[in-house]
Structure formats: C-alpha cells, structure tokens
Amino acid sequence: MLRILRALFIVSVLLAPLAHAADGAAGSESDEPPLSLGITGSTPGEKRKNPTSILKSADVQRLVLQIAETPMSRSDIEAAIADEFFTLDDMVATGLLREQEGLFHIDFNLLSVADQQSILGVSEKLGHDLAAAFLTRRSEFETLAQTHKQPHLGNTELFYIVLGCFSLDWDGLDLTRELGHRAGAQRNIDGHRFTPWAKETGADVSLKGLYWGSHNMQTTEVNFTTFGDHDALPRFGIPDMLWSQGKTFSRFEYFAEGQQAARQLVSAYFPNILVDIGTVMFSLRDQDLSISQLQTRTEIGEKKLGRLLDLLKAADYVAQYGDNYGSVALVLGPEDADMVNAMIAVGRDIMSAWHEENFDNIQSALSDLTPIRNGVPFERVYTEIWHFIFGIANRVLVEEGFFAEPYAKDRRHQGFRPLVWAKRIDETP
Question: Where are the domains of the chain?
C-alpha cells in the first residue's frame, strides 16, 4: 500500500525556515538568536509543553549551546532560567535535555556549524551515488510511466513528484524507520507526537536545489502538494498561497480579535475553494476545454469559474490555448494508483539495497556530531542526514534531465513543482 498520508504532515515541517511558525518553526528577530529551530510533527498549544516556545529566546538558545559543549548541573540551569515561563523539568519533558549522573546533557538533534558542514560534505557523494542507483532503473520507470498521459506534461514532471517526493522523501522516511536506521517521534504530549531540532546559524549551507520539502493540504477527495527546496519561499502554489492569507489582515494589528475572526472565516472556506480547484484541475487533466465546456462539466458558476481560472493561470496550474484551457500541473487520479505504487516499489528496492551497502559507513563517518557526543541516538539524527542525502539525489536527477527542473527559465514560480492528486491513490492497496 502507498503509505503517503502517514508522512504527509510530518515532512512538511522538518526543514522549514525559521520564520514559518505554522510549519513548526519559531524564533525571535531581536538579539540575533544563534539557532534556527523547529519540530518534526506537531506540538501542544501550551507554551511550556512546546520545545520551540521554550527555545525561542536568544538567551535560552545560548544556554543550550553551552550545555551541548559542557553538561551542567540542575542548580546552574535553574539559576539561568529563573525568570523564564518554563522549568528544567519542562525542558526534559519536551526532549531538549536529559539527566545523566547528576548532569544535564542535550537530548535532541542540535547541530553546530561544523556538524552541518560535515553532514553536507558526507552527503554530497552519497546523494550522487543514490541518484545513480535510480538512473540504472530508468527504463523500468519509463515503461511504467506510459500509462499516464497529460497533453501538456512529460515524464519528467511525473518522475519529479512520484520518485522525488513520494518515493525518496515520503517512502524513504517510512523505509529508514522500518530498517531501524531512523527513529520515530521523540515525544508524545497531549496526543501530539514530535521531535525537536535546532541548527546553529552561520553554516552558510545553501538550500537551493535541495529538493526535500513537501507542503500539503487535503479535502475529502483531493490532496494538494507543492514539492521543492526551502530556498525559494514562500511558494506561489497550493496550499502555500492559502496559508499566507492571514497576512491580508496584518495591517489591523490594533484589532486582534477582529483579525483572528477574519482569519477563521477565510479558513472555514478553504475546503470549498479546494474542492472547486480540484474539480477544475481533474476536468482539464485529459483534454483542453473552453470556459463553457468547463462550466458544463464542473457546474461551477460562470463568474466564480472565471476567477478560479485567473488564479490557476497566475499560479501556472493551467494555461490558455486559444479559447481553451489545459492543465500544466501534474494531476494524478485513482487510475494512476497502480503505476504510482509500482514506481514506489522499485524505489524502495533501490533504497533498501543502497542502505544495506552504505548505512554503516554513514554512521561511522558522522559519529562525532554534537548530538552523538551527547548520547543522542544516531537514529534520531539520521532524519536530518537522510534529508540531505535524498535532497542532493533529487538535485542530481534534475541536473541529469530525469526530473523536471523547478528552476526552469519558463517557470514564473521557481524552486518547486505542484501536484493535484486523488486521495484514493493513497488508499489503494
């Protein structure tokens, strides 16, 4: 079974930029915090149960960096956080610290500048090797792709999403956990499962071309995904543009209650908008249609349909060909499920063999990372490492022309590719 939705809302927050609190990250613009940070998963709303809230201030971040170098006693830490809203026990409960022989060590994936550079250096060759392994099976993927036809798209767009996102990213996360190479959520608090992470700023690691980030939203029938790097943010795609709607009301800072009410009102209509967009995209998947034909097929009112088409044209989901409109974004329906699952199965074979050959060497090469020295299991750190490896592999597959280019010159919106896909694909055994 294609196990997509299990990972869907986890991976979208993993390597998100610091300013995107909705993606699980947090930070302060003042006092130059030394860390970028976030969580994999979701956290409770109560601040003292949220590791990113605890780590928000620059002072606390510097304290954690100090503990990473030299474990500290309870009394010293409690003195340092005496004026904070949280306690040392809260830091332990949220997975930031752990006690060992009377001293407290970091207990999460905190990477120094040197750590990040080491991971990138090791991952570069590994990413090339992984990409080469996929290219050896290229003819199989080309054969499987023959069942999917969209008039204005080629196989490169299909491979970028199905292999780059569904296989290397989502199924790769499942597989590495099943193999015991990657740990699951570190904490479960009030029903929220999460793993905190942080990186020291200043590593000068470019995220451009590291295609490792999916952003996702779903209705009862249709899923919307953008997949790309985290250099070109925000993305002018769906769901990203809907996530940004709150900015519309930011000018009313003096009226917080009204601002919140307006955001909730717009959010309440998200499903309606997405259902209509999904209907339009699936109607245009197999053939170009005029507005009148599209209106007959979708039963969407003329004015509303016109506005939806204007939005989809601006976002490069559809294009106009004379009097007709056609889909230029990948659309996958239930009939594509067998093809998608077959591609993912091949990808899983490739990744399984690749890990068998490489994992022990990866663990040995990166055994001196800060969290490892502090007793954090390598399996918890491997989530970050795997993202660099498959992100680089995706970049190489783009460079080889096997995957579509997110930075193609003819694309107005750079750094990602969009997808509209039937939820039933995920439910197909």
Answer: 5-111
